[in-house]
Amino acid sequence: MHIPVMKNEVIEYLSPKANENFIDCTFGQGGHTKAILEKNGPNGKVLAIEADPELYKKFQNQESSFINNQLLERLVLVNDSYSNLREIVKENNFGPIHGILMDLGMSSWHLKESGKGFTFQKDEPLDMRYNPEANSLTACEIINSFSEDELCAVLKEYGEERFAREIAKKIIEKRKDKPIRTTLDLVEVIWLAMPRWYKSGKIHPATKTFQALRIKVNEEIQGLKQGLIKAVDVLEKHGRIVVISFHSLEDREIKQFFKRGAQINILEVLTKKPIIASEEEVKNNPRARSAKLRAVKKIV
Ligand SMILES: C[S@@+](CC[C@H](N)C(=O)[O-])C[C@H]1O[C@@H](n2cnc3c(N)ncnc32)[C@H](O)[C@@H]1O
Question: Does residue 116 sit within a domain?
């Protein structure tokens, strides 16, 4: 059973009422969508968006039968990117919209089942695209074709990796022998590039490189910026936006966007500091450890 991150906090800040309509920008395995549908009946709807066609099809094939038929009738699921939010709302003639949720990044399915190279704990081809039709650049192409400076910039910008230069150098050196095609090929190179003292640290040496590649492949920061602008645009007055992020790069974008919205009197920030998961939740779901939730209300 899939456990959505910070479910109670999402419901508290979205505050769904009977017959209101919501958008879940990141459907994943549908955990948050289900929680909203349980609150906005009998006539409220959820428009859910999922970028990954495989996850979308998985749900269409009723593998996610945890949402019962009564709730399903009020769900519209589309396979697209939330960066196209305005267009998706228009195409589906969806509204008025009382709340919008974004639960960023990949889902546990991507790590455990997708086989697309999101995890350094299994040997898989280095792909990392949520939607192969929308993105042509794979992680493998980045690793095997970017210059040292380009690789270094990706690792620094999207992974905040302090050993970006060392890793980039080692990638260039090793790919001369043979292409780096799989997750474990890459882990081996990262391992060789890292100083010995760092390897016994708390986080796996490959963590930041994998995060950086995923963000670059899926253009996640650009998508987030577009998604936030469009979310404010389509929302009703007094509607809410709730965003859960998993690393500081995203959290900074969200914080600044909300702050700017408040300065020009469009948004009211509901979370002065980011809300984090309870100790209890982190114990049951370690992924919640790095989650930060921020929320705003549209006031115009
Ligand atoms: C953290 S998971 C969401 C989990 C979900 N809240 C649940 O309860 O199952 C994020 C999901 O968003 C999807 N995603 C990532 N970027 C997206 C985008 N730009 N547009 C739509 N979906 C996206 C990913 O494929 C992933 O399934």
Answer: no
